[in-house]
Amino acid sequence: MADRTLAxxxxxxxxxxxxxxxxxxxxxxxxxxxVLAQLHAHPLLQPEGGxxxxxxxxxxRQAAGGDWLLGHEAYFVSPFYVYFLAAVFVLTGSxxxxxxxxQIVLGTAAVGLVLATTDxxxxxxxxxxxxxxxxxxxxxxxxxxLLLQSAVDPFLxxxxxxxxxxxxxxSGHEPAQRPGLGGxxxxxxxxxxxxxxxxxxxxxxxxxxxxxxxxxxxxxxxGGRRMDPRLLPRRAEFLRRQQLRGxxxxxxxxxxxxxxxxxxx
Length: 265
Description:
0% strand, 10 helices
């Protein structure tokens, strides 16, 4: 009975998680569609005037018309995005709105990939945070309504990280414990040294260090015999005087004698 209840709870949690992810992706798509509807006809964002977007559109239409080699000139823009636009133009009849719509759909898919990758590496709570941040990043949404290479960069990066997470998960590695993977991995902790390691480092048998004398307690003489407690204050006073005398004689020992001022007139 308990196992059945646990299975039902896990399945219901999975259903709620899928519904929440679908709601997040739908909200991201609606936000991107709203930005596209507002900025599609903006005069400053049109592919005109010899800008990079104008070059991309011109080369993509040339490739969609049958000239896939684009002449004999060298590529001075991203060839991937040129052929990406050309493929969209072939399917939609050189529609700029259709190309931007495909880009916002890919941007929404990038949010889902970020959500899945973070869930596989760092857990569900971190996945929700990463997905919400990716959906609310205005730079991604703004670039997706432009005809530039940066419009598809978030999707390509998220896809690469998702495939990396899948590959590491299939091979049995834990990316969260590998340094340099995912941007937040930490190396495994070093093992603590044992007595055998201490003995090997010292080159001999390990010995317990001698405890230091406590504050306010006179040091005991070496030799194995304890001093008469009545003589401890006298010995402490003797050691204190010896220490003060050594400090006073230090300049004379180092060769520096204090200069005596001559008495004034």
